[in-house]
Each structure stands twice: as C-alpha cells, then as structure tokens.
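User: quick one, fold this
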Amino acid sequence: MELTNLIVSPEISVFKAMDVINQNGRGIVYVCTPDKQLVGSLTDGNIRRYILKNKDLSAPVSEAMNKEPKSLSIDCAGSSHPFMLEHHITSVPILDRQNRVVSIDFLYAEQVKEKKNLNIPVVIMAGGKGTRLYPYTQVLPKPLIPVGDKTIIELIMEKFESFGCSQFNVIVNYKRNIIKSFFMDSEQSHHVTFTDEDVFMGTGGGLKLLSGKYQNTFFMTNCDVLLEEDYGEILKYHRQQKNIITMVCAMKNVSIPYGTVKLNDSGSVAALQEKPSFSFLTNTGIYVIEPAFLNYIPDGQFIHITDVITRCIEQGEHVGAYPVGEQAWMDMGELNELEKMRKRLNTDG
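Assistant:
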C-alpha cells in the first residue's frame, strides 16, 4: 500500500476523509501538511463520535481529528511494535527530524480482529415479496436469490456466525415453503427456526409475533442487507447507551448535478451554489433490540418498525444510532444494487 493512501490534508472534508479510510481498509488516516508534517490522525472511532455530536461532515477534517497522535522518530523505528503494544494502538507514523511522515508501521501486517462470541439471537425478516427485484422474485423468494455462489440469507447468517451468533429465527410469508425446504437440505448447517406470518404485517407487526420469545437483547436484520462491521462494537455501544433499540445507520452522500438557486422572501436570487452535496444518515435495516421494544407494537396490526421507533421516541425511550461508513453497508434490495453487491463480493473474495 502506498503512503498516499494513508495521508490526507487538513483541508479536506470529514466526509472525504471517511472515503479514504474506507478505501485503505486500515481504519485510520493521518492528517499532514503538504510537506507531510504530521498534525493529527482520524479513526473510525473519531468519525463515529463526531457524527453522534451532529457535527457537519462537510467541515475540514481538522475539526474531527485527534490533534495529539502517537508517533515515533526515525531513530526509534525499530521499537515500533513494543511502542504500539504499550500504547494500545495498531499503527504508528515514523517521523524524520523535520516532523515529516516517512513511513507508517502497523502492529499486524493484516488487520486481525479478536474472535468474539456474542451468542445472542438473530431475527431475519424474510417475509416480503421483494417487488423491487422482479422478475427474479416471481420465481424465487428474495432470501434465496444468489449473490455469487451463495444465497443472500446464507451470507447474512455466516456474517453473524463469525461473531458467535448462531441462533436464527426467520420470519417467513411469501413463498415460505421454498425457504423452509432450502434449509431442510442436509447440506445446510445453520440453526434455524421459522415463524409464520400468515398475513403481511410489516416489519413491526411481524416482529410482534415473537412477543415473549426473547428475554434479552437480540439482533434484527432485513434479508437483503450485508454489513461489514464489528457486530461486537455495535452491541457494546447499544448496551452502554441503555437503548431500547439501536439502528445501524450508514452515512450517505448525495451530489446534485446542477447549480442550485436560493431565493429570498421577495423572490429575488439570494445565493447560488454549484453542484452541492448533502450528507445524511440512512437506516440500513439492521437493529439491536431489547424485548421491551415489542411492547410498543400493537397486536394484530400492520405497522412498520420505523413507526414503532417513532412511538418509542415520543414516549421518551432511548433510541440510538450507530453510524457506519457507506462502504460498510451493502444493500441488494434493487436490481442495480444487487449487481453492485455481486461485483464487490467477487472482488473482495
């Protein structure tokens, strides 16, 4: 990897710095002047805290960075690994006598994550018709659409299983017998139970069918999304904040390909902005939920989970958001997004 993939200017926006971190895959960038003098560092954690404070992502990265990053002089480069272990960091920039970054040492050649055993249930909402994926879903239910050599629901389960979550409850409705038959195959090793949704109840109404089943925290996910994130950190955040529900939210940036015009009260032009960009958090359809959340869902009524969340907010419950980078979220809910997911998984593999 080139040094330029790990260094950004203090003037670039937080959002652009996020993109550099997503691209380099190391979870960090170092902020340097044009002559590579070190002035700060920015990690996934810095960005998450910045977003949760509702700060402006178009602001310069200097607003969000750690202004006192750890570093080593070139004379001490040989002791970088003991230094990183001592300070509980996984990378350190090496500086010359002019405070310029000449290299960056990593504790591991490849990022190694501690294997976690979260051991909490996972609910997968798999009852929808998947109309945005017609004509595929006229033949196959959405959970069984292949993405590469596996179905989307298998990929979702394998991701959770990598964090020690092996108990799955799949809520089914549309083409349910095909889904059940797929998991009855002797080659399937996943531990799956099914909950039948006899009429379409929405993501909230379907979840109500599980009332009384869980006494502790559980994950819930739609059956068309994959998340490349540390599920252990999401669960840890949820519990620290004492949330009744935590929504995993991805940062999205939308650029308007036209110049925009702002008018004043008299109808005259007040300002012009050329091809503006807007950043916002989007709901990925992945949640961490406490059983008490189900008490806010009415019996026998069609309702979306977002409407239930709104009820919780109105009642003063703690509702949290866990921000992740745009690249961490893959959504196959539409045909063009399905193709993007296939290409990305094929490239990553």
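User: anything notable?
Assistant: The chain has a mean pLDDT of 88.
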